[in-house]
């Protein structure tokens, strides 16, 4: 239909235009909302796994009830394909246990061998453990081709895209807009974005202007500073750590982000030093943290243990140290006892129970 909007275009409403119009109308008038589950009807679960994550969709009568996905854990990246597909099924059964435990459900997967998981003679320990969990449900596993299992497949795959990868796409899109001669409007607000350099870029730029960095480079030429190295771009490193010049504003920015941002919440001198030394190198980090008033007042290292949290000393002899307590509120016996006096020897752990009257 877009071709009909061009200037001097001949109006011709063909079957393709009619089909596109009806499809657009259905999309605008149909709300893609989640359906309310009916526990009296069976459920359909579509599962899929990829090298990035697991995806699953819960449906009933052709309507979407819920969907879920998660990234693979570090150890799961080494799973074979069969175990990954089975892990997607187990993931769905766990998160929707309140729906599927007492109801019939049909599992659809694009891994055909999972249909015969209940009759396979040889299973590894992981598969046996998952099979015990699966058997708690009333389910059937069906093969669903990967081309048809598009929703679960999309949930299991994470789109990796950065600004550099997106630039060609934006350029191509702009060319297509120019070709079809769509009206465009320039918005001044789009040009008000200020992109600040990252900390690493700022450090590299400051290194080139710092006199101390030049002194270190001269020592490297004379082989007096073997711990320092230069990469292909002329950036100075100290044992694989980026050297931070003596710029107080730059160091303060690094320390503030590593120490007082909302994501770190004053981690303390030890934690802060361990985090920073993996990427940066310069002195006086401990001095900066030691002057933080909040860390000194709220860190656990500077607080006294509350109450009787200190462990008690072990006794050397029997009945040297005992614990006592009373159990009250019991039904009264014929002799009038309604409580129990409990005495425990801390050395032998022997317990004595004596009936008493309240």
TrEMBL record:
Gene3D superfamilies according to UniProt: 1.10.340.70, 3.30.70.270, Ribonuclease H-like superfamily/Ribonuclease H
GO MF terms, alphabetically ordered: endonuclease activity; hydrolase activity; nucleic acid binding; RNA-directed DNA polymerase activity
Span of domain Integrase zinc-binding: 249-300
Domain Reverse transcriptase RNase H-like: start-end pairs: 38-135
Keywords: Endonuclease, Hydrolase, Nuclease, Nucleotidyltransferase, RNA-directed DNA polymerase, Transferase
Xref: PANTHER family: PROTEIN CBG26694 (PTHR37984), PROTEIN NYNRIN-LIKE (PTHR37984:SF5)
Protein name as catalogued: Uncharacterized protein
Organism of origin: Paspalum notatum var. saurae
Record lineage: Eukaryota, Viridiplantae, Streptophyta, Embryophyta, Tracheophyta
């Amino acid at each position: 239909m877009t071709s009909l909007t061009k200037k001097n275009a001949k109006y011709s409403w063909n079957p393709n235009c009619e089909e596109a119009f009806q499809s657009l109308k259905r999309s605008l008038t149909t709300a893609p909302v989640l359906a309310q589950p009916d526990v009296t009807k069976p459920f359909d679960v579509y599962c899929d796994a990829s090298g990035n994550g697991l995806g699953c969709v819960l449906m009933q009568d052709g309507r979407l009830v819920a969907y879920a996905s998660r990234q693979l854990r570090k150890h799961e990246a080494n799973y074979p394909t069969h175990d990954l597909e089975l892990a997607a099924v187990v993931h769905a059964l766990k998160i929707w246990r309140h729906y599927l435990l007492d109801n019939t459900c049909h599992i659809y997967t694009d891994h055909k061998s999972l249909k015969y998981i209940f009759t396979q003679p040889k299973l590894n320990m992981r598969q046996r453990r998952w099979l015990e969990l699966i058997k708690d449900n009333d389910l059937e596993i069906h093969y669903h081709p990967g081309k048809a299992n598009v929703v679960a497949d999309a949930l299991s795959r994470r789109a990796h895209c950065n600004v550099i990868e997106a630039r060609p796409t934006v350029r191509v899109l702009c060319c297509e807009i120019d070709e079809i001669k769509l009206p465009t409007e320039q918005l001044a607000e789009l040009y008000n974005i200020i992109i600040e350099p990252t900390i690493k870029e700022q450090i590299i730029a400051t290194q080139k202007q710092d006199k101390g960095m030049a002194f270190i480079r001269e020592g490297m030429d004379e082989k007096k500073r073997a711990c320092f190295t230069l990469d292909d771009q002329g950036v100075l490193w100290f044992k694989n750590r980026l050297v931070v010049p003596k710029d107080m504003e730059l160091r303060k920015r690094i320390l503030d982000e590593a120490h007082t941002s909302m994501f770190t919440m004053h981690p303390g001198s030890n934690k802060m030093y361990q985090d920073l030394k993996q990427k940066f190198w310069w002195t006086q980090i401990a001095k900066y943290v030691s002057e933080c008033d909040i860390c000194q007042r709220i860190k656990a290292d500077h607080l006294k243990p509350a109450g009787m949290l200190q462990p008690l000393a072990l006794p050397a002899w029997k009945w040297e140290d005992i614990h006592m307590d009373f159990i009250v509120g019991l039904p009264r016996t014929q002799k009038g006892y309604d409580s129990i006096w409990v005495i425990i020897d801390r050395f032998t752990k022997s317990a004595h129970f004596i009936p008493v009257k309240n």
